[in-house]
Design goal:
Elements (H helix, E strand, L loop, with lengths): L3 H15 L11 H14 L2 H18 L5 H14 L13
Helix pairs in contact: 1-2, 1-3, 2-4, 3-4
């Protein structure tokens, strides 16, 4: 399974590749993404983690910007629910 750090590396690489200019108003979601990806890594299986990472990359290419952390969290929760994975109440995915 790809680690959360590797997932963030791939996501940032895709985002940088599609940036239109260097003075773009990019908001750095790194810490929020790390918390969400670590929660998925901890509670879910490899397929769920990889699917979430793939979704971020596709959304980034499609919209030319990173998905908001709230959208990432929602997508992660949806994937977990769909696969019957229980999310603990204190998980970053619950916020």
């Amino acid at each position: 399974m790809a680690s959360p750090s590797y997932a963030i590396h791939r996501i940032r690489k895709v985002h940088r590749a599609i940036e239109e200019s260097e003075d773009s108003d990019q908001i750095d979601f790194r810490e929020e993404y790390r918390k969400i990806l670590q929660a998925i890594h901890q509670h879910a299986d490899e397929e769920t983690h990889d699917d979430l990472m793939g979704w971020v990359i596709v959304e980034t290419v499609h919209s030319q910007d990173l998905p908001d952390p709230a959208d990432l969290r929602d997508r992660a929760r949806d994937l977990c629910r769909y696969r019957g994975i229980t999310i603990p109440p204190d998980s970053p995915l619950q916020r």
